[in-house]
Amino acid sequence: MHDEQPPAAVEVRGLHVRFGPVVAVDGVDLVARAGAATALLGRNGAGKSTTMRVLAGVVPPTAGEVRVAGRDAVRDPLGVKRAVGYCPDVGGLVPRATPWEHLQLAARLRRLRDWEPGARDLLERFELGDVAHRVTSGFSHGMSRRLSVLLAAFHAPDVLLLDEPFDGVDPVGVEATMDVVADARSRGATVLLSTHLRELAVQACGEAVVLRGGSRVAVLDAAAMTGEEGARAYRSLLD
Ligand SMILES: Nc1ncnc2c1ncn2[C@@H]1O[C@H](COP(=O)(O)OP(=O)(O)OP(=O)(O)O)[C@@H](O)[C@H]1O
């Protein structure tokens, strides 16, 4: 039979992650296809960031199968790191470097050519053009978040991983992030986005995976989470 669905860029089966005695992820399955955006939702400590770190190739799975952009996260974590654009939930910026220096470094590491016009455009879209040559140590939380999203998207990765991209971000930053998600989808990339903000998740993503205590408790169409009824349905999944 002919498979009409776009290829799966992210395939996770039976993912477990332990940190000593702590079970952070306890048997998560996840499939995300080319051109799709999926929200990861759940309460504090549900396992969202740990799942994202595994998908980014920065935390190894304790057990399970994880393929990202055709690479195996256990056997080829470096290949996974190269294929994704990852905005971590915290950190990731060099305090003594400017946004432009971050972009220069990323371009050099990834051997990008003619990257400057695209970089300038992104800086303008995220309203970071005026501070492009200021060190990031003085940045506000929201400015740092905006720069982290911008850097994740900069090299047009096959898989874009945004962990809490809206946290503390103003409406301009939210809009720029929505644009980056839409652009990624339209060029056939896959987006995973973790957030506590249900309404923004619904706006950005077609589907939501709800985690609780390290396990997947639901996969929902974003449409099923809209309005008051959607809010109630979502809330009932959290506890
Ligand atoms: N490096 C670590 N060492 C020990 N425990 C960890 C580590 N990282 C995560 N955990 C634990 O794993 C569990 C899941 O954490 P995780 O950060 O993945 O949750 P989250 O859903 O992203 O939460 P939040 O919404 O608060 O960001 C928590 O109990 C957390 O304390």
From TrEMBL:
PROSITE patterns: ABC_TRANSPORTER_1, ABC_TRANSPORTER_2. SUPFAM superfamilies: P-loop containing nucleoside triphosphate hydrolases. Keywords: ATP-binding, Nucleotide-binding, Transport. CDD domains: ABC_DR_subfamily_A (cd03230). Residues 10-238 form the ABC transporter domain. One of its GO terms (molecular function) is ATP binding. It comes from the Bacteria. InterPro entries: AAA+_ATPase, ABC_transporter-like_ATP-bd, ABC_transporter-like_CS, P-loop_NTPase. Belongs to the ABC transporter superfamily. This is ABC transporter ATP-binding protein.
